[in-house]
Predict the 3D structure of the following.
Amino acid sequence: MRMNKRYIIWIGLIFLWVFPVHGDTNTEYHKCILPAQDFNEVSDCIKLGKNGQLFIAQKYLRQLSFEKNTLASVYSEEEGWMYVNRKGRVIISGVAAMDNGADVFHGGLVRFSQNKKWGFADERGRIVVAPIYDGAMNFDNGLAKVCNGCRSTCAEPKCEHHFFTGGEWFYINTKGKIVKKTISKEVSYE
């Protein structure tokens, strides 16, 4: 019986060595920028799993600055700003840019963009408000301003800052329910 337990343990260790914890990955890598390392760009940072899941290469995890919510921000040209967990799994991509970094969580939610539409995700990466809006502002006191029919416009020639203009604006709660209509054709800064 003792021999069988050792055998099972060895098989388990070999299995973990052959199949890494984060899953089988392709050899495709993307460059990324590590904000915690003075925005240094590294060439083999983001791995794409065979299931389509993105991961940060293990050798860069220690270089990331994890917040209280156990997430760290990373940037890549292909995916934009994203949040990763301590295991290196990208849990939210397409996070809004704010002040030269990833937007922060407001009321436990962060804005993200997918297919040019805006929504909100929680700290576990779950989509709480589906990306159905043409523009979105952060939550404040349980409400976020969102718009349909608005467009993102450059605030200056270099296009470093944007604002949303036009469209029909609403306030939504943290469940995505529209609770109040606002004035149309409004301008909101991003």
Observations:
- The two ends are 65 Å apart (CA to CA).
- The chain is about 10% helix and 45% strand.
- The helical segments are 2-18, 58-61.
- The mean pLDDT is 82.
